[in-house]
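Below: protein 1.
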Amino acid sequence: MRKAFILLALFISLTAYSQSDIVGIWNTEKENSIVEIYEDNGELFGKIISSDRAEVVGKINLRNLQNKGDHWEGELFVFKRRSWYDVSIYEENDTLYLVISVGFFEKEVQWPRG
């Protein structure tokens, strides 16, 4: 019984840790924009908290983020195109790597921790 409890506690702590990899403040390095990735009711979202473009501040730009083990998948809103695009995100050395998919094309951008 004790071993089962320890395994359950370990599993919960690892799950909680993996949830927090990408939670935090990130610098998009475009238009001096800063994005906060946060958890709300068990789901992760990204919101622009600072930008040279005042009209985008406070807007959600990441949604439906789901943990896929070694990366996250969800959607990224591109304000210039006014569209949601599929995005795959992984974190390495305090940098987020976002791979944005548009049809057959992919683009990778980097956001350092802000």
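Below: protein 2.
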Amino acid sequence: MDHVEELLKEKPIILPRYLFNYYSRLGITVEELLILIFVIDSGDKAEYNPEAISNSLCIDKFKVMELLNNLIEKQIVELMVEKDVNG
């Protein structure tokens, strides 16, 4: 029971109610919503790292890539490539 209490003390995820209530009207599947929640929780500059998402959510990496691609095609998320100091 103590383990469950510790898990419940983790940082909450804040999600716009509109997204939660109307995700299906936006054409988003439940799996895509889960990925979107993860991305939103990662902040404004979330890195494209399907393996990290896969490990956190216990979803196959290739499925994560497919779901992210679906969200990009639906114009729900945007993927921007930025160069860092290493190019």
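The CA atoms of residues 39 and 47 lie 9 Å apart.
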